[in-house]
Amino acid sequence: MEMITTAPVSLSASAVKELKRLMSEPDFDTSKKLRVGVKGGGCTGLSYVLGFDDEQEGDVDFDIEGIPCVLNKNHELYLYGMQIDWLDGLNNRGFTFKNPNASSTCGCGSSFAV
């Protein structure tokens, strides 16, 4: 696998805290890495992928504050410069995506168009 030194995406402090909390759970599989990616579908054409997964062919590795991450090299052009945040409010709870490459996003914030 290819290791890149500059992470193509960033995590807010609250996202790092939540991901490290998830990784500290007793049943967490330490062989998994945080996958950041896109897939077809969603309200606007592409939707975000964020979850712990195995490395696959075509992935690049990077690390954000001790969190091992993978990204399919073909997804980098859609995601470069994106910030992932964690909201823990009464109305909004979950990961959010601020993507400078998106020409439009849907109301739920989990899909976008380029």
TrEMBL record:
Q: Which PROSITE patterns match?
A: HESB
Which biological process annotations from GO are given for this protein? iron-sulfur cluster assembly
Query: Where would I find the Core domain in this sequence?
Result: 10-109
Q: Which GO terms describe its molecular function?
A: 2 iron, 2 sulfur cluster binding
The record's InterPro entries line, in alphabetical order, gives: ATAP, ATAP_core_dom, FeS_cluster_insertion_CS, HesB-like_dom_sf, IscA_plant_cyanobact
Q: Per its UniProt record, what NCBIfam families does this chain match?
A: iron-sulfur cluster assembly accessory protein (TIGR00049)
Q: What is this protein called?
A: Iron-sulfur cluster assembly accessory protein
